Amino acid sequence: MNDTYKTITSPSEEILFKEKNSKFYGYAFPVTSEEEIKNHLEILRKQHYGAVHFCYAFQIGTEKIQFRANDDGEPSNTAGAPIYGQIQSFELTNILIVVVRFFGGIKLGVGGLIAAYRASAQMALEVSEIIEKTIDIHYIISFDYKNMNKVMRVIKEKNLEIISQKMNESCEIKIATRKKNAKMIFDIFNSIFEIEVKLKE
User: Fold this and answer.
1) Distance of CA 166 to CAs 138, 143, 169, 195, Å?
2) pLDDT tens, position by position, 121-161
3) CA 155/CA 158 separation, integer angstroms
4) Where are the beta strands (DSSP E) in 46-186?
5) What is the DSSP letter of 109?
């Protein structure tokens, strides 16, 4: 079972690709929601006041994938699609790539545009730090304080990540585990007397 994915650690530095007086500024951002994507686009539109096209592509999600490619006024499939092609060729998700174009007065033609947007996206990814992350499943473990040791022993033995905890007479711990270990972890907690485990949606 594949339970890893690749993404970038932080926003890339700005790259500049020039072709026949047109300037293409490329950016890559790690994102997990459409809200973040909107924010990045708004900031770039303010930053590059006077640019003609803000073309982009994004992909978010690890199992349910959401993606979009936007030509922003360039001829159909000459901008968004080549940008998205680079996301696919680097095998990334949870990522947004934006290429901002300042028109230099000379038309590039369909082939020229595709090449320029592809190169700009590729350059933005080449200056980004790419990492592999695990797809994690989150569980909520509920139990009485007297059973704390049993729970903590499993967490320690199985090297589970604690995301949050509430410790009173009745306790609740949120844990994360790699997807491929999730069923085993669930079964362990489920088999312990007086402990409730449920999937965090």
Assistant:
1) 16, 11, 10, 15
2) 999 999 999 999 999 999 999 999 999 999 999 999 999 99
3) 5
4) 53-60, 66-70, 95-102, 130-134, 136-144, 161-166, 170-178
5) H
Amino acid in the structure at residue 10: S
Q: Which of 103, 117, 79, 98 has the alpha carbon at shortest distance from 21?
A: 103
CA–CA separation, 196 vs 165, rounded Å? Answer: 15
Q: Which residue has the tokens 């000379």?
A: 106
Nearest by Cα to 54 from 34, 67, 38, 66: 38
> Comparing C-alpha atoms, which of 134, 142, 156 is closest to residue 200?
142
Closest CA to 16 of 97, 108, 104, 124: 124
Contact 65, 74 (CB under 8 A): no
Residue 74 sits at φ, ψ, to 5 deg, of: -75, 160
